[in-house]
Design a protein that fits this description.
Family: Belongs to the class-I aminoacyl-tRNA synthetase family.
Largest sheet: 3 strands, parallel
Protein name: Tryptophan--tRNA ligase
Distance between the termini: 35 Å
Bound molecules: adenosine-5'-tetraphosphate
Strand content: 5-15%
Keywords: Aminoacyl-tRNA synthetase, ATP-binding, Cytoplasm, Ligase, Nucleotide-binding, Protein biosynthesis
Strand order of the largest sheet: 1-2-3
Shape: globular
Oligomer: single chain
Low-confidence stretches: none
Radius of gyration: 21 Å
Mean pLDDT: 96
Organism: Streptomyces flavidovirens
Order of helices and strands: EHEHHEHHHHEHEHHHHH
Catalytic activity: tRNA(Trp) + L-tryptophan + ATP = L-tryptophyl-tRNA(Trp) + AMP + diphosphate + H(+)
Length: about 325
């Protein structure tokens, strides 16, 4: 079976709808067809300041949400990045293979450091895509299910895998992005030109899955649309309505064409009221399941311990090969 790997940050406290529709939903679907490795990337989270106790709690919270979303530890390997030290170890090797200019071209770093101010952005934030390269290559992943914003980082991963293989001999699988066109980019509800994001969105534009369902319904109802009245998908002319149709279609399985037909002649309000209900039906059991996992931290920790053990077996083998190829003297 082909292998997939992906990760999600524990920082936000709650996943947002973009994380779920753009990535996590695909993770759940790929569990049966692929040998799947999924992780909570706490080492990536510390590229920006974290309160230690909160980071620990958020790491468990992220794992609980992944399980609530449908990851099954019997069908995939779920672990915490820092539990597998090989990530940081291969990350260093990859740092030494990456050009400074090459790393400087990563648009996500440019955006985030511009937002934080260049004096406050850390070197960790700068090199985080390179740690991500190590995350993926350690597992010899064939595909990486992510949202559109990660495409450039997967390209970097491919470049570095090829560079390493070219210089030291075949070692790493060159991975491909797995990005579903429909949900590659979920947009901010208030500013449908920008992606929904935990750091750039305003609270009204961002749907956190663990928020009060009532608050979520309200956000959908006050989503920005346009001055036209027709409900149809047109990402350029009608980005707000199109975003709502994408969300609706993905959560219910109804196609966009079916939805356009269903709402023919109806007002935006009707679409929003129905979508608000769809959202409430989705987030209510998600919240309950997440809480159930949080209420049983021993089970949660044991799932993560088993996951880390499985992950380490694969990661240690790849790291040993990479170290050997590079010429590092094995410890006796
Ligand atoms: N708006 C989105 N649409 C589709 N996919 C998205 N992802 C994030 N936002 C969207 C995907 O979610 C996965 C995990 O995200 P993450 O939080 O670990 O990474 P991120 O890109 O830092 O998430 P944010 O909210 O966008 O954070 P900031 O604001 O800090 O940049 C990834 O696969 C991502 O593509």
């Amino acid at each position: 079976r082909p292998r997939v790997l992906s990760g999600i940050q524990p920082t936000a406290g709650s996943f947002h709808l973009g994380n779920y529709l753009g990535a996590v939903r695909q993770w759940v679907a790929l569990q049966d067809s692929h040998d799947a490795f999924y992780m909570v990337v706490d080492l990536h989270a510390i590229t920006v300041p974290q309160e230690p106790a909160e980071l620990r709690a958020n790491t468990r919270l992220a794992a609980a949400q992944l399980l609530a979303a449908g990851l099954d530890p019997d069908r995939c390997t779920l672990f915490v990045q820092s539990h597998v030290p090989e990530h940081a170890q291969l990350g260093w090797v990859m740092n030494c293979l990456t050009g400074f200019g090459e790393a400087s071209r990563m648009t996500q770093f440019k955006d985030k450091s511009a937002r934080q101010g260049s004096d406050r952005a850390t070197v960790g934030l700068f090199t985080y895509p390179i740690l991500q390269v190590a995350d993926i290559l350690l597992y010899q992943a064939h595909q990486v299910p992510v949202g559109e914003d990660q495409r450039q980082h997967i390209e970097l991963t491919r470049d570095l895998a090829e560079r390493f293989n070219g210089r030291f001999g075949d070692t790493f699988t060159v991975p491909a992005p797995y990005i579903l066109k429909e949900t590659a980019k979920i947009f901010d509800l208030q500013e449908p030109a920008i992606k929904m994001s935990k750091s750039a969105s305003t609270p009204k534009g961002l749907i956190n899955l663990l928020d009060e369902p009532k608050a979520t319904a309200k956000k959908i109802k006050s989503a920005v649309t346009d001055t036209d009245t027709v409900i149809r998908y047109d990402a350029v002319e009608k980005p707000g309505v199109s975003n709502l149709l994408t969300i609706y279609s993905t959560l219910t399985g109804e196609t966009i064409a079916e939805l356009e037909k269903k709402y023919e002649g109806k007002m935006y309000g009707a679409l929003k009221t129905d979508l608000a209900e769809v959202m409430v039906e989705f987030v209510t059991p998600f919240r309950t399941r997440t809480q159930e996992y949080l209420d049983d931290p021993e089970t949660l920790d044991s799932i993560l311990a088993k996951g880390a053990e499985k992950a380490r077996t694969v990661a240690a083998e790849t790291l040993a090969q990479a170290y050997e190829k590079v010429g590092l003297l094995p410890a006796k």
